[in-house]
Design a protein that fits this description.
globular; Oye-like; binds flavin mononucleotide
Length: 404
Amino acid sequence: MIGIETSNAPYLLEPFELSRSLTLRNRICMGSMTRNRNTNANKPTSAATQYYTDRARNGAGLIVAEGTFISPTGSEWLHAPLMTSLSHALAWKPITSAVHSVGGTIFFQPWHEGRAQNDLAPMLLETSYPVLAPSAIPAKAGKYRFLPGVPGHTSNITAMTPSHIVDVIAQYATSCSLAKTAGFDGVEIIAQGGYLIHNFLCTRSNTRTDVYGGSAPNRCRFLLEVVDAIAAVYPMSRIGVKIAPCDNVADIACSYPELSETYTFLIRELVRKGIGFVNLSRRGCAKGEPNDDFSDSTTRPDGMELPTGYEPLDEFGPLVKCEGSRTKLMVNYGYSVDEAEELVKQGRIDLITFGRPFIYNPEQDLVERIRKNVPFVKNDRGGKVNYGPYEEVNENYNDWPTAT
Ligand SMILES: Cc1cc2nc3c(=O)[nH]c(=O)nc-3n(C[C@H](O)[C@H](O)[C@H](O)COP(=O)(O)O)c2cc1C
């Protein structure tokens, strides 16, 4: 049944039942985006209420809020949010309420950066909290502009003990409980980006010899335990997992056979659990529209090349869209409206994430453009629009013109 018969993207714009208790008004998701504007002690301000509400009004079926730290973090983004106390939850409440008041749905994204941190960042210096990762193997890249010399990620890493693992899984659950208090409708777990969960998945960053390292099932164990812990807070059908099998951000690429084996096992397990959705990114596989400065991670180390023309949706999509699966499939990275519409029409995906277009096209404008087949506005302001620097939080955040 098609919702809006006259639209140029009728499939994308039709309502979509994510779970029995949650119907989204369309299949369009605003991807989680760190915007580095939580200037009130890592809590959002009224600027964030405006930003999310503008994009929810008559807009996306689902918004995933920016990645939010579950513990003190040595981040490149000093003004990313933290969710460790009731005061954090209460600061998000006006945002979730405002999104709901205009008919939107908003999910929380718990975030642990793993080895992609710098221990000289203020939050870690203040708390003496260590940089935890599965193994003490430094990540390449990173750019800590606020530190002298602009260093990369730290090599001062503490390999997680079994008790660290228990503690961090509990931090995931606690942050999600607080998110529930804050009024979030569900959770998307970030398992990509070179961050903690991704560090566990890949042998390049995980050389553990216990039950969390070695085989694919062992490397997936940490994520699957995080999922189970969060499922004690939110129904499994309201939890999504975001993965990027081909990504090489923060030096995380693995060989193709490892990639194939790991993600095949992982996706089958997630589907078996009845996870709400898998959000599959094709970042790193050279498909989609040309990359901008956000991060082109297609260059892979020798011996870790992908098969020519590789597209992860071809390999992993059928594992989600299979008989008996309750799990929905979302995709992201460089998709156009036409490509997403065609994939939904063919029954190959259920949901589409747009990330960058939601920065430059305030939401009511973006969905209206899809409805009327008007091209998205492109960013003509350069790379600093993403994370700053900015003179004032609203700059490049709440000052994009509405064209329609
Ligand atoms: C400025 C910026 C910040 C981002 N921050 C996050 C984040 O916090 N968590 C996450 O899962 N993805 C993050 N992403 C990735 C987006 O959610 C999305 O997956 C990606 O941009 C691909 O979609 P697009 O090609 O439509 O932009 C970020 C992307 C951008 C551009």
